[in-house]
Amino acid sequence: MKSVELANATESLGKYIQFLGKEPLIVNIKGTPVAVLTQIADLENLPLEKNHDSLTLIKKYWQQKPSNCAASLADYVRNLGREPEIAAFLDRPVAVLVAIADIETVSLSNNSRFLEIIEHSRKQQKAGLVVRSEDVRKKLGLG
Known about the structure:
- There is one protein chain.
- This protein is an alpha+beta fold.
- The protein has two domains: 2-104, no CATH class; 111-139, no CATH class.
- It is 29% helix and 25% strand.
- It has five helices and seven strands, in the order βαββββαββααα.
- It has helices spanning 13-18, 73-78, 103-109, 112-126, 133-139; strands at 2-5, 25-29, 32-39, 55-58, 67-68, 85-89, 92-99.
- The chain has a seven-stranded mixed beta sheet.
- Strand 4 and strand 5 (67-68) form a beta hairpin.
- The longest helix is centred in the last third of the chain and has 15 residues, at 112-126.
């Protein structure tokens, strides 16, 4: 299966769609899949190379104004929400970009400084040095 690291996905989304083929492209952060780009129409019979300006991105179930696919794949993945992004060629849907993991969660789980903070917090909790939020609210008369 084809894959690319998010940090290396610097070509335009349109370029990735042009060379997508039948096999999906997985976008990873340090080997963890966060998004997939896959075709939803036969791309081999479309003249994408000659008419690349006709490739657009239809956002949020066709409700927003289409935009071109000139930004990098990494940019689209970073801004990808829960809704899939649908790429169209001459108004015909041809590919879809879908999040398969929350990019922020994956980024944090691979961040050594964040993991150190979590481990420090766990040690403090085990040692009894942590005050529960319910106890603080009770002490302050907030509940």
